[in-house]
Every structure is written in structure tokens, then in C-alpha cells.
Write a structure and sequence with these properties.
Length: 79
């Protein structure tokens, strides 16, 4: 009796097709569900701090006037 060596069976069409592992698919589905849930809760909760204003009553957001180094007011002299 002669035995032939076992070799892997070729793919049906000759070209192998990559299939992601089930754990990866499950992880991506879970990640998507977590994102959707967090987005829904955030949308239902609304803004974090409605009415939040600048601490300087004379300015609004971006028009703060002259600023020194690193965003601090001053002349820019390092002493």
C-alpha cells in the first residue's frame, strides 16, 4: 500500500479569498454599537455647558486683542 502525501486542497476557483476572523467582525460590530449608543446619549443630553461665556466680559471668543507669547497678554518681553 502506498500513501500519497496530504496536501492542502486548492480553492474552488483557484483564487483564495480572504475572510476576516469572526472575532474581528464581532469587535467591529460591538465598536459600532458602542459609538451609536454614546452618540444617542450625547444627543439626548444636549450641550454640556449651555450659556458658557468668556471670563472677560468685554470680549467674545476670538477677538481678544493683542496677545503675548504663548497666548498670554503682555508685551512679549521674557524676563
Amino acid at each position: 500500500m502506498t500513501q500519497r502525501p496530504q496536501s492542502p486542497a486548492p480553492a474552488a476557483s483557484g483564487v483564495g479569498r480572504w475572510v476576516p476572523p469572526p472575532a474581528l467582525v464581532g469587535f467591529l460590530v460591538l465598536l459600532g454599537l458602542m459609538f451609536a449608543g454614546a452618540y444617542a446619549v450625547g444627543a439626548a443630553a444636549g450641550p454640556v455647558a449651555p450659556g458658557m461665556r468668556s471670563s472677560d466680559p468685554g470680549t467674545t471668543g476670538f477677538d481678544r486683542g493683542p496677545v503675548g507669547p504663548h497666548g498670554h497678554g503682555g508685551t512679549g518681553d521674557a524676563r
